[in-house]
Amino acid sequence: MNTEARIKEKLEAGLEPIRLEVADESHLHAGHSGARAGGETHYRIKVASARFSGKGRVERHRMVYALLADEIAGGVHALALQTLAPSET
Q1: Which listed CATH number (3.20.20.70, 3.20.20.30, 3.30.300.90, 3.60.15.10) goes with 3-88?
Q2: CB atoms within 10 A of CB 45
């Protein structure tokens, strides 16, 4: 399973999102810090979940980072996150 599929699987299991978009943007960062041949280092994630309701942006991001700790330790260099509660979609 590639990194994008693992990210989707973990976010679906941990957040039960009503909307989830994951895009590998590694090709946009070729030659930059943290980039590596083959990509799978930079991702843009848009996720909407009821589990974000009543939480601020920092707490929402911490929730995502906790779910993806293994991927971050394993080579994901950057996440561009948009985390939304259902009322914000």
Answers
A1: 3.30.300.90
A2: 19
